[in-house]
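Pasting two entries for a bug report.
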Amino acid sequence: MAKEHKSKKVGTRLGLLALVVAAATIAVWFRQVGQVALPENRLVFILLFLVAAGLGVGAFVARTRWFGGVAAVLAVGVASFFLFTVSISRQEVAPNGIQVGDTMPRFTALDDQGELFDSKTLEGKPVLMKFFRAHW
């Protein structure tokens, strides 16, 4: 019985550690998303989510208490979702993409009020265009 208790203690710690790794990685990811500063190479994020998923699976192999199991399931779920979305999304920069200092192309689109916006109304004014780049 003591061996099983010790195993559950190790499994619970692994599950909690998996959740901490996944949560910290998510926090850094969304911080960088907010700053529009995601790296081109997301290998570090992929590795950290693989570590989180591996620790979560390891928690179940070692056997865990219920709260370690919940943490492990959350970590594996979050890591799997992230890894899936990265694997299905390709991010490529168009060879003729807009660069800093380029003239803004003319376009029309619906604004947040549902009204038609024409970029021509900005002609002659300095404009900051912010493009969002994430993995999805």
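Entry 2 (this is the one that rendered wrong in the viewer):
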Amino acid sequence: MNVIIALFIGIRSLDLTTMRIRTFLTLIISITLFIGCSSGSTEHTYLVIKGATVFDGNGGQPIENSEILIRDNAIDCIGEAGDCSVTMGTEVVDAAGKFITPGLIDAHMHFFQTGFFDSRPDAMDLNETYPFTEIAAYQERNPERYYDTYLCSGVTGVYDVGGMSWSVALQEQAEENPKAPHVAAAGPLLTPVPGAPFDLPSDRVLVQLDSEETGVKMVQYMSALGSTGVKFWMIRADDEDYMSRVRAAADEIEKHDNQMIVHATTLEQAKAAVKSGAKLLVHSVQDRLIDEEFINLMKEQGTIYNPTLIVGAGYTVAFRGAADIAPIPITDPNGCVDQRTRELITTASQFKDHPRMSEAFKDRLQAFDPDTGMSSDVMLQNLKRLYEAGIPIVVGTDAGNPGTLHGISIYDEMEMMQEAGIDPNDLIVMATKNGAMAMRREDDFGTLEKDKLANLIILESNPAEDISNMRSLSHVMIKGKLMDVTTVQRH
């Protein structure tokens, strides 16, 4: 660098033509760039968070009076106070008296859905007010508002387990975005029924599994795009011809080292799915209590269970809002929900005279009690039994469906899982480590360990005492960047 300075100083004493001066300056700039590239590559940023009680996501005893040293975007050291070598110039964050867990993971959501019926014309057709073609285009162009909502809610990873093919591209886009959660996506779903309500000229959500060839080609295409899973939306377990198509697609999934995801809500469907190779069941068995055969199948296959306890009642809550019976609740003290969604939800009652709102339907909506009806006893009992049997379980909300809002719904889901009898300390693992495993990213994040990405949240209250203390979130760190959650939402 001294050579460069000398050259700039010396130029005043030279008698050079304009052309020679330009040549001389070009040489100087080239040398400067070379030196800058050679010397700048060793610079790193360091930050240490000290004093908090840390739950690392593995389920063991918490680390009290902890120290987490972060180098650039990864964890360089984690342990008790004094375990990490902190050098001069390291930024220090005092978190004494606070609690830290890995960033939360919503292992079941949908980017193409808004949280209301404008994105679900099959449930309530609002095309006259909100044309689905325009809604779908807007969802594709504006995923950032959900990135903000999730980070603001402490969610640093999401799994889109069914949507249009463009959702797969979000995986790479989000990875390169320093202010986005990590994304895994499955893309369009295979289903026994036509997908007309969601069909667009250039894309679709549902692909009818009308032949073995369709299933095989679909798996080949989605795998080539880079999908993290291929999802089956409902299966006809009692239809042998249909199940032969499912098995052909499942075989192709295995060839491509992809994973089979199945929406199954009956015990018969769930058993057939696991026997076919399902690695992730998204939704509770809700028609009857599970049996030992099902538990053993889950263990043999290593299948993950995602109960989605509240999404069904979320539809009822959204219908009640549309019928002007009761507003759709938004518990959002940190302002995480984006403005467009907030406006959509708060104006739901404009549809109180919609043809869907028959008097008989309104009577059923009036009879619903949101304090006691957000999940069924069968779903809660089945979750508890699988938990006690040691089956891996994840937290997934099915966010985007009417009444289940992106980001903040994860708290309601975790609280309902706790109500089923799951210990909050184990819920921390389900909402972090297990979610990363479902996303096939357990080597990168989900636990707080050396060399993993620095994704974590800071809480004011102890989540191991009551999982509702996850709501005491004050800060979120994504890829090594620490943010006050009240400053995250920009949309």
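Dev reply: Rendering is fixed now. As a check, the viewer should reflect this: The chain has two domains: 2-40, 103-447.
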